[in-house]
Design goal:
Elements lengths: L4 H13 L5 H7 L6 H16 L2 E5 L1 E4 L28 H13 L4 E4 L9 H14 L4 E4 L2 H11 L3 H11 L14 H7 L6 H13 L4 E7 L5 H18 L2 E8 L15 H14 L5 E2 L3 H4 L1 H7 L6 E4 L6 H4 L10 H10 L3 E4 L6 E5 L2 E8 L13 E2 L2
Parallel strand pairs: 1-8, 1-9, 2-3, 3-4, 5-6, 6-7
Antiparallel strand pairs: 10-11, 11-12
Helix pairs in contact: 3-11, 4-5, 5-7, 6-9
C-alpha cells in the first residue's frame, strides 16, 4: 500500500514538533514510495536536535574469548563446535596480551562477547573481566550480551541481579546490546529459537539499568523479518527506555548472510541500510545516540549514514571476528586519521569519546595517553575523570 500525501504531511508535522511516531507511522516510513531523501532530511533534523554537528568515534578493540557455542543460531557464522578445527578458547595469557595490546594502542574500550562454551564454567567468564580490570584498570570493559547473562543463569542458578553484581565487582563497565536480533516470536523462533527470548533480553537490560549499568541496544535486520517486525522491535526498546533511561546507544545491524544458514538471502542494499538508519532515528525518540557500525554497513554507507540519523561511527574496532566470519569485506581496523577524515568529509565535527560518551582528550607528546573532558551536559555526579597512560 502506497503511503498517501496526507500521511506524509502528518508524519512531517510530528517530526518537526518533536512528537512521538506510532506503529502505523513507522510502517509508513518503510514504504518505498516515500522518498529516501525526505526520510533522511527528517532523521537528520532529529539527529542534530540531539547531537548538533558532532560525530563521535572511539579507539576500541574487540575480544571474543571463544567461538565454541552450544547454540546453533541460523544467522550466525561465528560459532563453532568443540571439535571443529576452527574452534578455540583463549587462555588467560592470550587475554592479557590482548589487553596489553589495547593499552599500547591507546584504546579506551574493550568490547567482550563470545560463544557459550559448555566446558567453561561461570568463573572462567568472571575471571576474564577480573584479570583484565586488575591489569588494565583504565580500560573500560563493555561485556556480555543478555544471551550470555542468561547462559550464566543456567550455569549457576543465580539471579540476573546476582550475576551482574558479580561482574560489576570484577570490573564490568557497561554492556553491549547484542542478542536482540528481532524480538517478535514469529521471526525469533526461526533464526535463534533456543537462546534467550525477548522477555529475558529485556529482563537482563532492565536489571542492568537498575544497577546503574549503561547498555546499548541493537536490531538485526535484512533477513526473514518485514517492516512490521522492525517497528515492533523499536517500539519495545522505546518502551523500556521510557521506563529506565538506561540505553545510551542504538545500533542497527545489517545482516550478512555468507557462511550462515541463510546464505541464500541477499544482504540489505545500501539504500535499505540508510532507510533503516533514518527510520530508527525517527522512532527511537528517547535514545540519544545512533551508531553507524562501519564493519557491517561498509565504510561508504556508514559515512553517508551521518546524514541519515547516525551520530557515531563506532571506532577503530581492532580484532573484530563475528561479522567478518559472516562475509564482511570491510577492513579489520580503521586508523584514527581515516575515521576523522571520513567524518570531516561528511561535514561533521569529529569528537573522540569514551564508552560513556565523555569526550576524550589526547596528549600530543604522549599519543597513547588520554584524559576525559566532560561535556557541559554531564553533571558532577556522573564524573569519573581518569587519566591513562601507556
Amino acid at each position: 500500500m502506497t503511503v498517501t500525501e496526507k500521511q506524509v504531511m502528518q508524519i512531517e508535522e510530528k517530526v518537526l514538533a518533536g512528537e512521538r511516531l506510532s506503529l502505523e507511522d513507522g510502517i509508513a516510513l518503510y514504504d518505498p514510495s516515500l522518498p529516501l531523501h525526505t526520510l533522511g532530511r527528517w532523521a537528520n533534523r532529529v539527529r542534530e536536535r540531539w547531537n548538533g554537528n558532532v560525530a563521535y568515534y572511539n579507539i576500541n578493540t574487540h575480544l571474543n574469548p571463544t567461538n565454541v557455542c552450544v547454540y546453533r543460531c541460523t544467522f550466525c557464522a561465528f560459532r563453532s563446535d568443540l571439535r571443529d578445527p576452527k574452534g578455540y578458547a583463549m587462555s588467560d595469557e592470550q587475554i592479557l596480551a590482548r589487553g596489553q595490546e589495547a593499552v599500547d594502542h591507546g584504546c579506551t574500550e574493550m568490547h567482550i562477547v563470545g560463544g557459550l562454551h559448555h566446558q567453561r564454567d561461570y568463573e572462567w567468564y568472571v575471571n576474564i573481566i577480573r584479570i583484565l580490570h586488575q591489569a588494565y584498570p583504565t580500560l573500560h570493559l563493555k561485556a556480555w550480551t543478555a544471551v550470555e547473562i542468561n547462559w550464566f543463569e543456567f550455569l549457576t542458578k543465580k539471579s540476573i541481579r546476582a550475576i551482574l553484581e558479580d561482574m560489576l565487582e570484577a570490573g564490568l563497565g557497561s554492556m553491549p546490546g547484542g542478542g536482540a536480533e528481532i524480538f517478535h516470536p514469529e521471526i525469533r523462533g526461526q533464526i535463534c529459537e533456543h537462546k534467550a527470548d525477548s522477555a529475558k533480553w529485556f529482563d537482563v537490560h532492565r536489571t542492568a539499568h537498575q544497577l546503574g549499568l549503561r547498555t546499548n541496544c541493537t536490531m538485526l535486520y535484512g533477513h526473514l523479518e518485514n517492516s512490521f517486525h522492525r517497528i515492533d522491535h523499536l517500539l519495545r526498546l522505546r518502551e523500556l527506555q521510557d521506563e529506565t533511561g538506561g540505553f545510551q546507544t542504538f545500533i542497527p545491524l545489517a545482516f550478512h548472510p555468507e557462511n550462515t544458514g541463510l546464505a541464500h538471502i541477499e544482504k540489505p542494499s545500501a539504500l535499505m541500510d540508510l532507510r533503516t538508519m533514518a527510520v530508527c532515528r525517527l522512532m527511537l525518540d528517547n535514545i540519544q545516540h545512533m551508531k553507524a557500525y562501519w564493519i557491517m554497513l561498509g565504510i561508504g554507507t556508514a559515512q553517508a549514514a551521518l546524514a541519515y540519523g547516525a551520530d557515531d561511527l563506532d571506532g577503530t574496532v581492532r580484532h573484530e571476528l563475528i561479522y567478518h566470519d559472516a562475509g564482511a569485506t570491510t577492513p579489520e581496523l580503521l586508523g584514527v586519521e581515516e575515521i576523522q577524515r571520513l567524518i570531516l568529509e561528511a561535514g561533521r565535527d569529529p569528537v573522540e569519546r569514551d564508552t560513556l560518551y565523555r569526550h576524550v582528550q589526547r596528549h600530543p607528546d604522549q599519543p597513547h595517553a588520554w584524559s576525559v573532558v566532560l561535556p557541559a551536559e554531564v553533571t558532577a555526579a556522573d564524573a569519573d575523570v581518569r587519566t591513562a597512560s601507556a
